[in-house]
Structure formats: C-alpha cells, structure tokens
Amino acid sequence: MISRKNHLLYQLDYQYWANEALFASLDKLSDEARKRDEGLPAKSIHATLIHMLATNVLWISRFKSEGIPSPLDKEFFDEWRELKQALRMTMRQIQHDLQAKPEEFFEGELTYTTASGKERSNWVHDAISHVSGDYVFLRGMVVAVATRLGAPLPVLDYLQYRREMQDSLTNLRAGGSGR
C-alpha cells in the first residue's frame, strides 16, 4: 500500500514528466506562435505557462508558510528556454520541499493568504490535488491550441508515466544485479 505522501509526490513527479512531454511538443512551434493570442485564459501558450510558473511560486510559498511571494517579473521569462527551465526548477522545488515534510503534514490543514488577501484553510492533500488538476487542465488547453498550430500531440497519460517509471526501476534493478 502506498502512503498518501508518496501518492501525492508521484502526482507532482507526473506533472514534471508531463511538462517535459509538453515542452518537446511546443519546441516545434515558433516563438511567435507560442506568444500569439489564441484565446486561452492567459491569452497565449507562453503566457499560460507563465501562469503555471506563477502558480508554482505561489504554492512553494504556501507550503513553506512564507506568505504571498513577490509578483513574477514576466519580462524575465520572455525567452522560451528560460521559461522552461524556471518551470522545471520550481516543480522540482515543490517536490523537494514536500519530500522533506513528515507524513503527518499531508494529513493536516494548510492555512494561507490568497492573492486577494483572504485567509483560507484547506487540507494539504486537497491543495496538492487541486494544483495537479489545474496543471492537467491548463496543459490540456495548451495542447489543443498547439496541435491546431501544427505541434505534435504529446503523450501525457498518467498510466504511461507510471509504466515508464516502473520500466526505469526494473532496468536499474537489473543493472545493479550484474545481469
């Protein structure tokens, strides 16, 4: 039986894996296509990924009980390579920070201040599930636009992620046993 903590950490690792698949697809588009207003909630593909980055930064702060972080300087992430790297780093930071938390943390409540200044409380596991679901939703919208623009359809299936992780573990174990 997998613990709630490990299940949620797998969910976050999946987000990293799915982002990598998305990046590989989006790399096939021009910078102009990624930045063009395509009717997404944040207008463009690029701006939607900046929104995902801002979400990462916000939740890093909330999980550390640090309050509301300073707004992102969106101009800094104008370069595609820099935006991808920032998304990679912040997703791994969330995973790293939560990995260090005890099991009890994942069963507890998280109290934080929203961007509008309201205090909220949610179960930690619900907050992580919310973030994961939001990323899946946003990624789905981006994929719909990107494939319409000619990008290849990325494989984002969670069970595919699990199969790949299991295959990697099997290969590591086989390599470590001298086979």
How are the SSEs placed, and which strands pair?
Elements: H1 4-26, H2 31-35, H3 45-63, H4 80-99, E1 109-113, E2 119-123, H5 124-148, H6 158-176
Antiparallel strand pairs: 1-2
Helix pairs in contact: 1-4, 1-5, 3-4, 3-5
- Fold-level CATH name: Four Helix Bundle (Hemerythrin (Met), subunit A)
Q: Which segments are poorly predicted (pLDDT under 50) over 5 or more consecutive residues?
A: none
Radius of gyration over C-alpha positions, nearest whole angstrom: 18 Å
Give the strand line-up of the largest sheet.
Answer: 1-2
- Count of all domains: 1
Could you say what the CATH architecture is? Up-down Bundle
What's the average pLDDT?
93
Number of strands: 2
Q: Which class do the helix and strand fractions yield?
A: mainly alpha
The succession of helices and strands, N to C, reads: HHHHEEHH
Give the CA-CA distance, first to last residue.
29 Å
CA-based shape = globular
The description of the largest β-sheet is:
2 strands, antiparallel
**Residue share in β-strands:** 5-15%
Quick one: CATH class?
Answer: Mainly Alpha
Task: Report the total helices.
Answer: 6
The CATH homologous superfamily name equals dinb family like domain
Question: What's this entry about, in short?
Answer:
The protein is mostly helical. Helices cover 62% and strands 6% of the residues. The protein has six helices and two strands.
Which labels suit this protein?
179 residues; globular; 62% helix; Four Helix Bundle (Hemerythrin (Met), subunit A); mainly alpha; 2 strands
Describe the structure.
The chain is mostly helical. The protein has one domain: Four Helix Bundle (Hemerythrin (Met), subunit A). Helix content is 62%, strand content 6%. It is built from six helices and two strands; from the N terminus they run ααααββαα. Strands 1-2 form a two-stranded antiparallel sheet. Strand 1 and strand 2 form a beta hairpin. The longest helix has 25 residues. The mean pLDDT is 93.
